[in-house]
Amino acid sequence: MADMDTNQEILRLKQLRLMGITSYFPRFALPGALPSEPHTWEVVDEPEITPEPAPHKSAPHKPAEPQYADIKHDSFQVPEWRQAEDVVEKQQIAKQQIAKQQIAKQQIAKQSAPVKAAITTQQNRSPKETSHEENTDDALSVHLLLIPVDERLCVLNQIPVVAKSQLQEKQQKLLDNILFFLGTRAAAYHSVRTFRWPLPGMSGITSSDAAKSSLMHFLEQFSHEQPFSNLLVMGEQGAGWMREADNERADTASASRPWQMVDTYSLDQMLTLPSIKREVWQHLLPLQLRLKSG
User: CA nearest 237: which of 172, 143, 163, 114?
Assistant: First the structure.
């Protein structure tokens, strides 16, 4: 019986050498494994390879095909426990995607609430009250990022409409320098909120009144979640909407905003025209004094 096992092991090693595979032996015993029985294997000399005679010049030389051992491999099958884990993982990923979609729909619904109210008011007006200028008063497309800093400051920066909803490395470095000048800590880039106009899925609503109302509702909703006392608006479009909304609120004797606004150029404008940075620092001086005194 030992001779048969020895011959099989020698045959296996020979087949591995023909395939170019190096056989390794374990150096440590596995926990709970049975002790190995020592065996002495006979050293088998490699067969001498005699060179083949040179083929005749007239006959074409055909390279010899490599010889491989006929080894049968069992088909690989995924164990049942692994299949069950894959199914559970796919279900969890699907649930997470559904939850994200529901959160996005809720945010869109909250932003569109004032827009729907403005549309209802517009529809209830008589034709005499609605002039031609109001029908053609469309707001431009805008893309804003609301970047929280702390309870004293929040930044509303305008970026290109086609850009991603995040700041690039140069923009972040410039904003960090501005916040350092103001004497505040770094911005919470992981908590950035996005405002787009027209709202996703509501491209047919473009009136400026609806745009201003939606933006103010967006800011008021965020201030309820994370209160702040100062708002730095960077960009002409967002600053214009904010000033017009504040003037309308003052005319109607409504309650004032829970924050004080300072507006200046956007980060992209400063990177494109570095000469305006001096003017930006002058815009930020009142905000710097207010933050230091508070």
Answer: 143
